[in-house]
Amino acid sequence: GHAVKHSYVGVELNAQSSGGAQISRQPDQQGIPPVRPGSPAAAAGVQPGDVVTAINGKAISSTSQFIQTVDSYPPGTKLTLTVKRGASTKQIPLTLGNRPATPSGG
Questions:
Q1: Which of 25, 79, 87, 89 is deepest in the core (most CB within 10 A)?
Q2: CA 55, CA 100: separation in Å to the nearest integer?
């Protein structure tokens, strides 16, 4: 067989967010920033605390919907994220990457 390629944005999501998929404001347990350094999200200018409300115009209402939607596109796809940042809404173009292999030790 061949390895399944998963699309990769490079963000840690706040599972408690509502009205969209919010990027966490805090680093994870390993101290990795919520917008992974060198990731497609970092290159696109996504910021911690941003709330993704749509991907390519398709409404996103939860973190699980964000993950399912990203997974439905192959790596290398150019997407437009609709993001709420404070009082403003931004359109952020982003090109999906390949999810890196999971480092050993989880």
A1: 79
A2: 22
Cα gap 50→20, rounded to integer Å: 10
pTM for the predicted model, two decimal places: 0.88
Strand residues in the chain grouped as ranges (E): 7-8, 13-14, 21-23, 51-55, 58-59, 78-85, 88-95, 97-98
pLDDT tens digit sequence for 30-53:
898 999 999 999 999 999 999 999
- Pick from 56, 68, 76: nearest CA to 5: 76
